[in-house]
Amino acid sequence: MGGSGPALLLIHGMADNSSTFEPLFERLAEHYTVIAPDLLGHGDSDRPRADYSLPAFANAMRDLLLYLGVERATLVGHSLGGGIAGQFTYQFPEMVERLVFVNTGGVTRSVSPVLRAVSLPLSEVAIRSLALPGVLPVTNAALGLLGRVPLKLFVDNAECARVLTGLPHAGTPRAFARTLRAVVDPSGQVVTMLDRTYIADSVPVLVVWGSDDPIIPVDHAHLLHAALPASRLEVFDGAGHFPFRTDPERFVRVLTEFVDSTVPARLTQDDLQTALRRDRDLDAEVQIETPA
Fold first, then answer.
1. Is 241 a catalytic residue?
2. Strand duo 188-189 + 205-210: pairing
3. Among the options 16, 78, 241, 247, which is catalytic?
């Protein structure tokens, strides 16, 4: 946590930690109060036998903000963190000023085959194997070599190697498996935020994506943008799943312009009731007008 000004809550992705945002910290702290926690089961946080669902993570973020005395914040969620930001908005809308979805999960079903495979039973065994002598260096070396191949599939190999370094720690395989299976199964993502977009009608939304993301396709960005007509969309050409690390200067510029040019939301229960009724009424009209 650092800086001063309006609060930004940066929520990292699955198997990652708060250091993923390190290229942004200094620049953002010049204008904002930057809060970047390690989620439960990640980074330096504990790895208990606990609930690793999206609602549980959202509750933890609410508790963190309350503990710090932060009444409202702009939520910046990457990958799994985007899903948590969306869930947070659903549970605690009065605390949300803006939403920034970065290569977010929770849009539609498709996702990397690797994540589908890792959601299978006994995947923890494979993760624990990374702790065996020599396995992680060899894996990272292989990722480094493949990263030189000019294919979209390998654009994030360096970032994957960075993330893998944190997986062999005690308790991580179990926490990772529980987190993943809460949102992904062998058929793909099991959670979508598209059925709750009425919440974001009164919240400024920025969608940022890497055009070459091999984990969550950029098609999800366009689908989310279409579902939120008032949102802004920024696609980083040539970037993969981590556009804020590929081009941190551009990301800070885009984020700063978005925050400075939008009015923070102040949602009330009446706002939500109106939006919910409007959303359901529109659904009913579509069903009535659709021929049998």
1. yes
2. unpaired
3. 241
Calpha distance 172→169 (Å, rounded): 6
Contact predicate 75/99, CB 8 Å? yes
H/E stretch holding 232? strand 232-236
Between CA 274 and CA 15 the distance in angstroms is 38
Kindly name the residue from 213, 220, 225, 247 that is annotated as catalytic. Answer: 213
- Give helix 54-68 / helix 80-91 axis angle, nearest 10°: 70
Instruction: Examine the residue annotation and report whether 79 is marked as an active-site residue of this protein.
Output: yes
Order the strands of the 2-3 sheet from edge to edge.
2-3, 33-35, 7-11, 73-78, 96-102, 205-210, 232-236
Could you tell me the pTM of the whole model? 0.84
Q: How many residues does the chain have?
A: 292
Compute the distance between CA of residue 245 and CA of residue 193 in angstroms, rounded to an integer: 25
Tokens 């980083």 correspond to 236
Rg (CA), the chain: 19
List 79, 119, 201, 231, catalytic entry: 79
pLDDT digits (tens, 9 = 90+) for 147-183: 454 446 556 767 776 777 766 565 677 787 788 888 8
